[in-house]
Design brief:
Blueprint lengths: L7 H14 L12 H8 L3 H13 L3 E4 L3 E4 L7 H6 L1 H4 L1 H11 L6 E2 L7 H4 L8 H8 L13 H13 L9 E4 L1 H13 L5 E6 L3 H10 L2 E8 L2 E2 L1 H11 L3 E4 L13 H13 L3 E5 L13 H5 L4 E6 L11 E4 L2 H15 L4 H12 L2 H26 L3 E2 L8 E5 L6 H9 L3 E2 L1 E2 L13 E5 L6 H9 L1
Parallel strand pairs: 3-14, 5-6, 5-8, 8-9, 9-10
Antiparallel strand pairs: 1-2, 4-11, 6-7, 10-11, 12-13, 13-16, 15-16
Helix pairs in contact: 1-3, 2-3, 8-16, 10-11, 10-15, 12-13
GO molecular function: DNA binding; DNA-binding transcription factor activity; pyridoxal phosphate binding; transaminase activity
Protein name: DNA-binding transcriptional regulator, MocR family, contains an aminotransferase domain
Family: In the C-terminal section; belongs to the class-I pyridoxal-phosphate-dependent aminotransferase family.
Amino acid sequence: MARKAQSLAATIADNLSRQIEDGVLREGDKLPSIREYANGNGYSKNTVIGAFDILTANGMIEPRRGAGFFVTRGGRPKPDMVETTTLDRAIDIVWLMREQLQSKPEFLNLGEGFPPIRWLEEIRLDQFHQRVVRTGLASLFRYGSRFGYLPLRQHLQHKLAAYEIEAAPQQIVLTHGANQAMDLVLRYFTRPGDTVLVDDPGYYVLFGKIKLSGVKMVGVPRRADGPDIDVLTGLLKQHRPKLFFTQSVGHNPTATDTSAAKAHRILQLAEAHNLIVVEDDALADLKPRQTPRIATLDQLRRTIYIGSFSKSVSAALRVGFIACDAALASDLADVKMLTHVSSSEYCERTLEVILSEGHFLRHTTHLQDKLRRATANGIKALERLGATLFRPSEQSLYLWARLPGQDDSVELARRMFEQSVILAPGAVFSPQGDKCSPWCRFNVAYLEDPRFVKALQKL
């Protein structure tokens, strides 16, 4: 039976909430300290902290400086409130994001969404600051252009040309990473109650954004060669969606690429049903340039292309971009200005300097070489464990696999978390958060770590 997937911290918070509602814990009662609760129940301190954070956010308990946590008058949200509290419905997505943003040296993060830091260190961000300052010190104390730093957009024009996508600088809007780009597109095209299509499984952070916006989300099943065209055709007729968010290259989490034949068919359907295809290509620098892209076939007529440098340079720079029709780009730049004023010209200038250096191409070549070796080794590691792969890949940051005898990846993730191993369970990548899944997303860079096998043996 399908059931709502939730983190261990959320489970602890639910148990304590029931004790408060049943009167076992009363208003004014002091809870055990985080250390006491963790030691007494066999949990990690971070797990207990997460549970107390949830209870505090729900008004069930409150921290008092120097004294600890105390039960308050607040109660659990009523059933009708649970249905309308969008953040509450996205709690599993928020949990995974929290885990990925925390630095826990003692944990092995097989659910990590980025390449290892050691793979990116050769960029040497520290050496570019002086060059950035010399090229425009005065501009670093002001807001930038609504479109973003022009020289970087000119670089991106050449980058897209390498994918055979023609985009003039006025068709490119710089953003705070690919995630802000998705926010801008959602704000511009949708209103609460509208319907959008997404890959299923797909990018869980996007799902959280859609839920928060009050937009209805419907999943298109992902096959080994891209979206299921028959299902897509039926959904277009049934829901008349405005947008279809998809990843055609290095799909997260399945590591699949959309075939050229399917890309053609998607565009034919988009034309027939007045659909805009939003192509997220955040992993572009980790894949060969010749891999087919939907925007290459369409030339940004019915596609919006989103890119990022978080995976190839640094997530800390927060530089992404949108490429689309020029009139739409101007509108999206206005939305960006109204919601964020501008993006960071300092970060954009830093990235422009990096791209101007000849070694960026060498860096991405080295990055792809490392990824090919890690992918091959990761496949072997999973095969030794008897895992089933959705589709083996020659070069991908992720592998989508199920371990033998594990039908519920959320339960597996809970148990592995207690062994200091973080997994990314399949339910998080489904538009239906309560959908039980045996699949997990594995970062290939960490699959050979002996702590993984050791933790499995302990279960």
